Structures are given as C-alpha cells and as structure tokens.
Amino acid sequence: MTESRPATRHHHVVILGGGSGGISVAARLARGRRGLDVCVIEPSDRHWYQPLWTLVGGGEASFDESERSEASLIPRGVEWLQDKVTAIVPERNMVRTSDGLEVTYDHLVVALGIQLDWEQIPGLAGNVGKYGICSNYSREHVEDTWRTIREFQGGKALFTHPSTPIKCGGAPQKIMYLADDEFRARLSPADYQVEFWCALPNSFAVEHYAKGLDKVMERRGCTPHYRQELIELRPEQRVAVFEHLDTGVRSEERYAMIHVTPMMSAPDVVSRSSLANATGWVDVDKHSLRHTRFPNVWSLGDCSSLPTSKTGAAIRKQAPVLAANLLAALDGRTLRASYDGYTSCPLVTGRGKLILAEFDYDKQPQETFPFDQSKERWSMYQLKRHILPQFYWHGMLKGRA
Predict the structure, then answer these.
(1) Most exposed among 166, 167, 177, 391, judged by the fewest C-beta atoms under 10 Å?
(2) Does 39 participate in catalysis according to the annotation?
(3) Is there a contact between 167 and 264 (Cβ–Cβ < 8 Å)?
(4) Given the residues 39, 168, 198, 222, the one annotated as active site
C-alpha cells in the first residue's frame, strides 16, 4: 500500500501570524513589491487591538471597539491561509499546519506573538472571572475585570506582575490605577487597600519613568511589594501565595479581589523549533531582525528575541525595518535598515491621566513631544484613548505608518 504524501504549496514569503506584526509586514511587502507572492497563516477569524483592553477592564472603553474581522485586514494581493502552524522546519524551508499541509517558502517571517501560560500558576486556569480573580489578558474575561472592580466592596485588592517577559510591561499597573479611581469614587480610604505584587525589582525598567510611577503609587497609597512572584492561588479561600525571588520566603495573602497577569513565554511551536534561542524566543539579530542562523528567516514582535519591551509601538518601528531588509535580501542587496530598540508604553495612571514612556535598547528616553513625558497628562490620555486606535487600524496595519 502506497503511503499518501501530505498536500504541499509554495510561496515567496510566508508570514506566520496575522496579528499586529504579521499584518503590518504583509502590508509593507505588498506596497513595496507589487506581485510578490505573500501568504499569511493565521487560524483566527478575529483580530484584536489589545492595548485597548486596559481601558475595557477599567470601564473606559467597550470590548467591541477592540475587535475587527481578520478578513477585513488582510492586505490586497496577500493570501490568507486560515490554518494553525504546528511545526516549523527551517532546515527544509517548510512549515506544517494542523490540516496536514506542508507550506514551503523562500523567506519566512515569524510573528506568532506570545503564549499566555495560565496553567503555570496553580489555581488560576479555569477560575478567571470567579472568586474575585480577574485578568485583562484574557479576551474571554477582560470584561469580567470591570465587573469585579465594580463589585468590590472593600478589603485587599491585589495586582500582580510576573517575572517572565509579558505583553506591555506597564499593563499590570494601569488597571490598578483605574481600579483605584473606581474604589475612591464610592468607598472610604479606610475600607480598602491596593497592593502591587511585582516580581521585578522596581516599578518600571526605565528610571526616568519609574520615578513618576513611584510618585503616583505614593500619592494614591498603593503599596508595592517587589521581587514577589505569585506561585499559587487558592480560589475558594481567596488566598494568594507569593515567593520572594531573592530569599525564597513564601507568604500567604488574603484578598477580596486579585488582578493576575499570567506568566508568558514564546509559543510552543517556536520554542520547540530550531529557530529558538536558549530561552525559547526566535533568535534574531537585534538590529536587522534577520535570524542569526537561517538567513531567510525573520521575526518581530513578542515571539522574537529582541531585547526590548513587547508592545505594539515596538512592532510599529520593527515592521518597516524587517520589510525593507527582506526586500533587500530578495534583491541580493546589503541590509541597510536598522532597528534601535524603540518601544513605547502609554502608562495610564488613572482616568484622564497618562505617562507616555518612549525609550530605546539602552533604556534612554526617545520622546516624541517637546515636554517631559514622565509627568501625568490629560492630553496623553486622549492620545491613547482616541488617536492611537485609529492610527493602528488605518495607519500601522495598512503599512502607512
């Protein structure tokens, strides 16, 4: 009996992932080289502007505002394969999908985002939205965050930040400040406590902005606990177990509500492949975004090894560099585009208040506006709430900005 061979197809450029990075690169390649055979492999038929979820969880925006159909965002001339990648085999210039398809390529762009490891904290998986547990990182439960905040009647409200890399390093604090505003509007300060349990050594990696955030916490009376990793939840008892990462000492904290930022990692399909570095991320040169061992493989965004914060703003600067260098490689030209590590984190510090952090690989500020962005401003909040979403949908994802 003859064994059947898997179905195959070939494209000049295959892009894994139809999120911020994948669509942005696809749009730039389509605009930069008419007729280039580009295929995006993405299983979901929905696309989310996730930076808005902080405001959804804080009662400042609706979930529907963050959602579009994937089909509406695929650039003209780019093919969309609605399937899931299950294996990446760069030695054969091939990826395999859940439908058993083998797709070969001349060049590969890996933009698969980051993996949320809910199961790494015992008691978390399956309990988000119950027992006072909420998380803005779950699209299924981000609206439960606002419900949980509204239903809070006092006691301890805990907000956690893990030691792993995460999407938008400021997000665990943003929801804390929005929640505190809601608590202040209807509760006496003596009736509740807000605490920030963070596995990192400080409030933010860039000192220029950390000073501003420290002042916000002090003014609000939010108590920070640094180098503390959430390692277990006992939901029915409403108990959180933390471990101090320097001393190993564990503590049990009772809470009325807890907002959990889950541990995160590179997607399994990446970390299992030969594209990964020792910690699981796609191993690329931090300036050219080209793979360090496979010259026809590129990566950007959350799944890449780029040593900068994992934000959509970083992808906005990475996408044009990757697209320019990939097109140069197709022509046999020298790679001249270079990424300097720019990233941005609009740090919501309350309703109508925001610190706009912008910095590079060296953690030096790269500020856009002619004023000190480490200070809270109403104008910067309006930028995040109203301007950046439109910029995302109509500029970044169209390859125009």
Answers:
(1) 391
(2) no
(3) yes
(4) 168
CA dist., res. 96 & res. 345, Å (int): 35
Q: Kindly report the number of other CB atoms within 10 A of residue 390's CB atom.
A: 9
CA atoms within 13 A on the CB side of 168: 23
Q: What's the confidence (pLDDT) of residue 4? A: 57
Mean pLDDT, to the nearest integer, of 30-37? 95
Pairing state between β 250-254 and 115-116: unpaired
Q: Which amino acid is at 29?
A: L
Quick count: other Cβ atoms within 10 Å of Cβ 43?
15
What φ, ψ does residue 107 adopt, rounded to 5°? -135, 145
Q: Is 168 a catalytic residue?
A: yes
d(CA 205, CA 324): 30
pLDDT at 5: 63
Output the CA–CA distances (angstroms, integers) from residue 255 to 88, 126, 158, 236, 258, in the order listed.
Answer: 43, 18, 7, 11, 7
Among candidate residues 196, 164, 162, the one with its CA nearest the CA of residue 179: 196
CB 28 within 8 A of CB 45: no
3-state helix, strand, coil in the chain (%, to 5): 30, 30, 40
Number of neighbouring beta carbons within 10 Å of residue 321: 21
Residue where the block lists tokens 């001393």: 247
Structure-token pair, residue 59: 């009662």
Q: List the domains of the chain with CATH numbers.
A: 8-114+266-341+394-398 (3.50.50.60), 117-264 (3.50.50.60)
Q: What is the DSSP letter of 187?
A: S
Q: What is d(CA 10, CA 222) in angstroms, rounded to the nearest whole number?
A: 55
Summarised one tens digit per residue, pLDDT across range 285-316 is 999 999 999 999 999 999 999 999 999 999 99
Angle between helices 171-186 and 207-220 (to 10 degrees): 20
In this structure, of 1-5, 254-258, 271-275, 321-325, the range with the lowest mean pLDDT score is 1-5
Catalytic residue among 134, 222, 303, 345: 345
The structure's pTM equals 0.96
